[in-house]
Amino acid sequence: TLNFPLCQWIECFLLGLLVGSVLIPEPHILTPDTPRIQLRLAGDKRKHNEGRVEVFYNGEWGTVCDDDFTIHAAQVVCRELGYLEAVSWSPSSKYGKGEGPIWFDNLHCTGKEKTLSLCPSNGIGVSDCKHSEDVGVVCSDKRIPGFKFVNTLPNHVENLDIQVEDARIRPILSSYRKRIPVTEGYVEVKDGGKWKQICNTEWTQFNSRVICGMFGFPGERKYNARVYKMFARRRKPTYWDFAVNCTGNEAHLSNCKLGRAAELKTNGTCAEGLPVVVSCVPGRAFAPASMTGFRKAFKQEPLVRLRGGAIVGEGRVEVLKNGEWGTICDDNWNLLSATVVCRELGFGTAKEALSGGRLGQGMGPVHMNEVECSGFEKSVTECFFNKESVGCSHEEDAAVRCNIPAMGFQERLRLSGGHNPYEGRVEVMVERNGSLVWGTVCSEGWGTMEAMVVCRQLGLGFASNAFQVRVAADTPEYERVVSQCPVTEVDDVSALNQRLVLISLQETWYWPGAVSADPVAMSGVRCSGTEMSLSQCLHHGAHLSCAKGGGRNAAGCSVSAPDLVLNPQVVEQTTYMEDRPMFMLQCAYEENCLSSTSGQVPANSYRRLLRFSSQIHNNGQSDFRPKASRNSWVWHDCHRHYHSMEVFTLYDLFTLNGTKVAEGHKASFCLEDSECDEGIEKRYECANFGEQGITVGCWDTYRHDIDCQWIDITELKPGDYIFQVVINPNYEVPESDYTNNILKCRCRYDGHRVWMYSCHNGGSLSTETEQAFPGLLNNQVTHR
């Protein structure tokens, strides 16, 4: 028996009925008087499965008017194209104005019609619309199982887009079958529920480029054709009915045109040809171990990068210009331009071109606007663009989601026992004695960075929480649980951890997981947060070392995350010095906001304070909330407020060679929305024990005149220094980007005055420029 909850059995059963009765379409049996049409999605697309609805009729492509168009009509369009369902539709030529006749107007579909021409309308070609009313649709990513393309216009095959259920690269040679990712093999399409090869008589390098891009590879290469000829003689291929005609800049096979009908011999073989084979070149991040030397030799800083994405191959597009990183405005942003970015960074074609700051807002200048690419450029910086970005703000930052190779990472990791797929105990698959087994990860040192990698590996977004359960003997937690357990159940700490599950799930944040996966299979895990899988992090390997009962940890994932960024200009503009008597600094002294020497001086002495304001923006996609729940916030009687985070920011002064000479820190006295962008309402206010946090699009200002908003520089000698601020330094709260949590400035102090200048956020300058900034590399913040 399978260990499935009853509801999952019912869900599977109903899905089976759905597949049997609805999803597998009946053949197109049309009456002779039904107008024969073909459809395609065209225009300024940002995904391959969306676009302006275009109809091929009477030898000419035309459009559909949005009058009376509904989701039911969109459903007919998507299913006629082989997609499972329609997601949405858009009026008013969202995907640009089409050309030619407007074939349909005032469509009244039920959603069950086999073809759009069967829907009641004014009559084909009868319309009073303009192309400004052209309708567009978004179809689901999933294709209809068993879908078979039926060409109702055999004399116009060159005008039709490819419509198949699925496509794949199937490894043929034994040397490629176990290789991950699969880079070489037959190109196969699934049509009518059956996988078929393509005859290579009209195959071109442009076709190979598109196929490789679809599967996450930036380019293609030659292969040993002689070996495949030998294989084809031994096994008879099953060929698809058509050739393929791509121009090379398509993001997906469905955007390519059908080629001519394949010329097959009477025995089913390809006339003067063989099955199509492609050999793809993986990007640097996915290259096999044999290419490691190449990766290490690649030292040149790229001109383009992605920021703010949850998984590899997605993020806000940023370009380097004059030593400073900036963003791209989303005007005219489309799949062509996005694909150039993806290939440039070592990924495949673009899966989606995103607009409107969907993956978080950047900082600094907007370098490019109205980007137009042909699709063959080596870099997006080679594309035509408008250098003027007047009217563009970071609310219009462009982003991409790229196709990446199938690495199988998700199959070796799971979250077990959670309330939903986004949470649970972390369990990994490892090889033990020649077998693959599931086990837990030692919780020692487990934190946000490790949870980030888990969520990325599973494709679940960002970490929302990183939980540990470690109970040592003779601790209050141990005694609390023992008092509620039968004596036989707490013979050791390991049994106590099991009991924690039964006592308080909410309090311990612990899920039991699979009993068979209880043994610790991975220990000593240390991640930087950028790895694609947990196995790429530092760990002990086969030599496990984990304290008794310490193998319990869990992760919670979220599709979005906050992103805190300091405003450098505010720091520069508000910096000043103040000499303040000790008797006025008692509360600050109690909260360790003064240097260690302050406890040895009389109350009437003075401390010299370097004061400044901090304006902290949330540029991410979700609100920044403190990790601790309200009932665990710490009340500080002297300042009369709650600390939701004991260390929210660190303030430091370094010499130019990286030696720390003065420091300060600030707890989250009050995380709240001081101001917000236009149209955004404040959500967090600290008064009356209110909720603390920073809303997306808002900022929290800690003014220069409040306690602890300083560095104690009483003992500082005159000279040149590096001033540094770090937000969320212990990574208590997950963010989409930690590199911009650091702010650095040049600071000059002559004993009487202080100057703060050249302030900038981490990651905002080129590597060369940052290396020229004294002390920057020596003072990189680490999470350990």
Total strand segments: 40
Percent of residues in helices: 10-25%
CA distance, first residue to last residue = 46 Å
Structural class: alpha+beta
Strand content range: 25-35%
* Contiguous runs where pLDDT drops below 50 for at least 5 residues: 1-27, 290-298, 469-510, 775-784
Q: Averaged pLDDT, please?
A: 84
Output the number of helix runs: 14
Major sheet: 7 strands, mixed
Overall geometry comes to: elongated
Rg is 31 Å
Cofactor: Cu cation
EC number: 1.4.3.13
GO molecular function, one term: copper ion binding
Function: Mediates the post-translational oxidative deamination of lysine residues on target proteins leading to the formation of deaminated lysine (allysine).
Structural write-up:
- The chain has about 775 residues and is an alpha+beta fold.
- Strand 31 and strand 32 (about 640-645) form a beta hairpin.
- Strands 14, 15, 16, 17, 18, 19 and 20 form a 7-stranded mixed sheet that branches. Strands 1, 2, 3, 4, 5 and 6 form a 6-stranded mixed sheet that branches.
Provide a concise account of the structure shown.
GO terms for molecular function: copper ion binding; protein-lysine 6-oxidase activity. The protein contains 14 helices and 40 strands.
SSE topology sketch:
Blueprint: H1 6-23, E1 38-42, E2 50-57, E3 60-64, H2 71-80, E4 86-90, E5 102-104, E6 136-139, E7 166-170, H3 174-177, E8 184-191, E9 194-197, H4 205-214, E10 219-221, H5 225-234, E11 242-245, E12 257-261, E13 277-281, H6 292-297, E14 304-307, E15 314-321, E16 324-328, H7 335-344, E17 350-354, E18 366-372, E19 384-386, E20 399-402, E21 413-417, E22 423-432, E23 435-441, H8 448-457, E24 462-468, H9 476-482, H10 493-503, H11 505-508, E25 520-522, E26 553-558, E27 564-566, H12 568-574, E28 576-581, H13 586-590, E29 606-611, E30 614-618, E31 634-636, E32 641-643, E33 649-654, E34 660-666, E35 675-676, E36 698-702, E37 710-712, E38 719-727, E39 742-749, E40 754-761, H14 767-771
Parallel strand pairs: 3-5, 16-18, 23-25
Antiparallel strand pairs: 1-2, 2-3, 2-6, 4-6, 7-8, 8-9, 8-13, 10-13, 11-12, 14-15, 15-16, 15-20, 17-20, 18-19, 21-22, 22-23, 22-26, 24-26, 27-30, 28-29, 29-37, 30-36, 31-32, 33-34, 33-38, 35-36, 38-39, 39-40
Signal peptide: 1-24
Protein name: Lysyl oxidase homolog
Main location: nucleus
